[in-house]
Amino acid sequence: MFPSQLKTRTPLTTPDIIKMVMWPFAVLTVVHRTIILAFNGAVTNDFLPIYTAAVNFLNKQDVYLDNFNWTHPHYLYPPSGTLMISPLGFLDYDVARRLYIILNVLAVLIAAYYLLKLFGYGLSSVAAPIVVFAMFSTETVSNTLIYTNMNGLILLAQVLFMKFLLERRLWWAGVPMGLTIAIKPILLPLLVFPFLKKQWQPFVASIGIPIMLMAIAWPLSKDPGRYIRETVPYLAESRDYFNSAISGNAVYYGLPDWLVLGLRGGFAVIVLISLWLLFRYYRHDELFFLCTASGVIMTAQFLLGSLGQMYYSMLLFPLLMTVVMKHSVLRNWPAWLAVYGFMTFDMWFSVPWRQFGEAAQFLRTTFGWSLLLIVVFTVLVNRWLDARKAGTLHLGIDPPYIRDDVEHKGVPEKYRFPEGRPEQNSLAAQIDKTY
Fold first, then answer.
1. Which positions, given as ranges, span the membrane (predicted)?
2. For the whole model, what pTM was predicted?
């Protein structure tokens, strides 16, 4: 049977060849990251405090015992999150950790599948093995599995939230959002999308699920008050280790307050202008708008917030997928220089040039996030300036070569806005009224 696979019965197309090459790389990379790197583990262990909290919660013992002066991973979930992860405490540590790793691997793979579907690709497409290989080659997926945290599950929740919004399954959209908010509110800013469209249904589960879980968990926890008194203030601080946010680097390198304020303020302006241009000129192309704007919002949160860790970049996968769209803001090399900064698994520590290597390793994530925001801003502003100069702002800000032949190849009709000028399209007029 096996030798028959070496026979070529029909001529191979270029996509056939690419799939033939990439699927072995994709599958074995997933296996390597899971069975070898993740199961091996590392000095950094995000799962140990999670497992300890689950066991203590089940045994009616104190959960919030961390000394925040230490640099080891801390347990930062609220009581509602403790309730959700508590079943892990019934298992042996090694079994629980490996199960947690496998759940995150499955979550990333399912998220990849739905992202492919959103952009009109299937498992038989040439894009499928490329996307899986690219995802599991990154630092964000690799270290999520090695350190064993829940970023993979959060990515799946993000993709499902976006999928349900695009499909107008608004009640369901709030469920993945509510479940993540109950553990960590990292996706909370994305609720701006249903808010702008006056869609109240997603807010029911987004708010109701965390409240319900907190109401159940609070009386079952021995020390829930310590989460409010000690953990919440710590979350608002900018720590000086494993923190790629501007504020984190400022603490580490001892930057003056005026410089930190200026950098954060400058990037905040860049973000607001980018979001305004996206909303003003691209909101009718819902898939492009949702994925691009969410990427800008998430990047801004990582860069301008109190804590930004490199493996948070997993939540930028929807933005990176927009490169297949002709009017993508990522079709330029500076964008992918930025992506290299926060996605690559490369280490830049150097023996002969130690100081340079440490700076490159510690700052490349901050550089990547910063450059990505600058690229998106520059592309959008240049398009706006060119359209204003040409007097075609009423047609949008896409260049003529894009506007006259926008490719929605493979993008399902229900995820995009019909062709034509917004002011000439009755459906566009109806959507305009909802904003």
1. 21-39, 98-115, 121-138, 145-165, 171-196, 203-221, 258-279, 333-351, 366-385
2. 0.90
